[in-house]
């Protein structure tokens, strides 16, 4: 798949990036190379490769011995929330009734 100048400009627009003409051409070539490499990977025969999720083969049991062997810890909930939401709102500089609910008002950072 060949990436066009318009493709690069559309991706830049979606990412809220302003690119110089030289950057558009540089990124066009880079994106084209990435997609060519992905196409090569799609041509590989992976029929004998076992599927994985989260970096572990899908057949690994989730018992304590396998978790210990892999260096993972048990996923246990905290006994209580680290901070009461009302307490957090009291500490915020612009929050509470003037914000229309239990919210914190923050400055606008995106112009589009």
What's the arrangement of secondary structure elements?
Layout: H1 5-14, H2 21-42, E1 52-53, E2 56-57, H3 64-70, H4 85-91
Antiparallel strand pairs: 1-2
Helix pairs in contact: 1-2
Task: Describe the 3D structure.
The structure is a single chain. This protein is mostly helical. The protein has 4 helices and 2 strands, in the order ααββαα. It has a domain at 5-42: Histone, subunit A (Orthogonal Bundle). The protein is flat and about 55 Å long. The two termini are 31 Å apart. The model has no long low-confidence stretch (mean pLDDT 80).
Helix content: 40-55%
Low-confidence stretches are none
Main beta-sheet strand count, sense and barrel state: 2 strands, antiparallel
> Hey, roughly how much beta strand do the residues contain?
under 5%
Instruction: Find the count of extended strands (DSSP E, 2+ residues).
Output: 2
Order of helices and strands: HHEEHH
Continuous helix count: 4
Order the strands across the largest sheet as they lie in space.
1-2
Shape: flat
Key phrases:
41% helix, 112 residues, Histone, subunit A, mainly alpha, two-stranded antiparallel sheet, single chain, 4 helices
């Amino acid at each position: 798949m060949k990436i066009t100048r318009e493709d690069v400009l559309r991706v830049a627009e979606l990412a809220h990036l302003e690119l110089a003409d030289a950057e558009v051409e540089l990124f066009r070539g880079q994106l084209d190379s990435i997609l060519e490499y992905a196409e090569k990977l799609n041509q590989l025969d992976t029929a004998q490769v076992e599927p994985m999720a989260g970096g572990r083969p899908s057949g690994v049991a989730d018992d304590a011995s396998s978790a210990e062997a892999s260096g993972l810890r048990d996923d246990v909930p905290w006994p209580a929330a680290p901070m009461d939401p009302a307490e957090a709102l009291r500490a915020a500089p612009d929050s509470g009734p003037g914000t229309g609910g239990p919210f914190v008002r923050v400055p606008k950072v995106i112009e589009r």
